């Protein structure tokens, strides 16, 4: 099989809620969830789907950048190639778009990578999880992302989420250190016995993070996600050794070379994997293997993924048996999507779908109805 055609389709899915990161809302209700969908067609007629849905206040890619990068640089380099040569495809993409501290526009590359995985698995008639070669789980438990203006708001969000069936909560902190501990405390008091952990998205200085870690320890928190800027290697090491909390790196764990450097400098003990931030499943699985074989804590999350990114993540995390609740919060925020039938859930457990590839069916009429004019 050869890659015959690559279509890039910008769409906008309506949102029902926003997330506030340390730098501000990740995307507004008016912006919606914007993605560049990628449809790859093989010369035998098999089709695979991927998508790029960047979060511009999380990392430096936008809907416009992923669209132009895929259309003008990545796709032309891949037409005519063997989709089973995953290493060769990534090398070709890295020739066009050079890696640096991160894998070089990883969200754009991940869209191609996921579409190619879907394509080859559909061609073989196997699930992505089978291709990944791990059946440690048949699904993953979702956590509820709590993005609150204060403790009362946090308690109210948590109560509503408990009623929906959530039993794990990731709390966005880092934008107002004066209220963060009270916000986390309110979530824990409202949801006793549940998993609760803060994510600062690089929002604290080292001195703040050292103080906050002590306060979170006193609350009984065990995991603290990306407290300080990803470039502060010395700070990450100092923080890691100053607290009983497991420091999980997310923004700092964008790619293998930087992760290996953090390991050399004894500055990492846990990582959060996102399929899109690392450049796709090809790299994500290598990072999962690295974490598993070195005893690092391994957790999973995403970038408010629409169903394609969501399905790819669930299949990867289930393959690796990630049992810490995962922050795949697309369903919590996206009001409508392009699926022909709803994603399979068991309460708040997202299941690995039956069927080849990603195991989901795309309704192309819906894709057309959600089409976005990027006004390029
Ligand atoms: Mg994070």
Bound molecules: magnesium ion
Name the poorly predicted regions: none
CATH classification class of the largest domain: Alpha Beta
* Record field, number of beta strands: 15
| CATH-defined architecture of the largest domain | Alpha-Beta Barrel
Indicate the overall shape.
globular
Number of helices: 13
Proportion of helical residues: 25-40%
Number of domains: 2
The gyration radius over C-alpha positions equals: 20 Å
Give the DSSP E fraction (strand runs of 2 or more residues).
Answer: 15-25%
Looking at CATH, the homologous superfamily of the largest domain is Enolase-like C-terminal domain
Structural class: alpha/beta
End-to-end C-alpha gap = 33 Å
Order of helices and strands: EEEEEHHHHEEHEHEHEHEHEHEHHEEH
Main beta sheet strand tally, sense and closure: 4 strands, parallel
Overall average pLDDT = 97
